[in-house]
Amino acid sequence: MSVPKLSDHDVTSCSYCFDPIRWTVTAKGLPLAVDASPDETGKGNTAVYADGTGRLRSRGLTRERPTLEHAEWRAIPHIATCKNPPLKQRSLPAPRRRRTAVRPGPWRPR
Length: 110
Known about the structure:
Blueprint (H helix, E strand, L loop, with lengths): L10 E3 L6 E6 L5 E5 L10 E5 L5 E5 L12 E3 L35
Antiparallel strand pairs: 1-2, 2-3, 4-5, 4-6
C-alpha cells in the first residue's frame, strides 16, 4: 500500500529535541505525537488517518486489527524516537486516607 501525500500544515517541532512531529488524537481522545514522516521500515505500531474534518486520528495496531485500513499510514510514536525525552516524573504514593464512616442507625418513622 502506498503512503498518502501528506501536507506540512500540521507539522510542528518537538519541544525537547526539535524534530518534526504531528499531533494526533487517539480513540480515547488523548493527544499523541508521532514522527512527521510515515514509517517506511514497517516497525511503526500506530495507524494514523485524517478524519472528515482533517484532524489526524490514531489507533494502535493490535492483534485484532494488525493491518492498515483504508487511508491509514504507519507511524511511530515520537516518544520512542525522541533524542531528548522528558524525564519521567516519579509519582508519589497517595497519602493514606483515614476512613471515617457513619453507621446507619435503626430506622425510625417520623
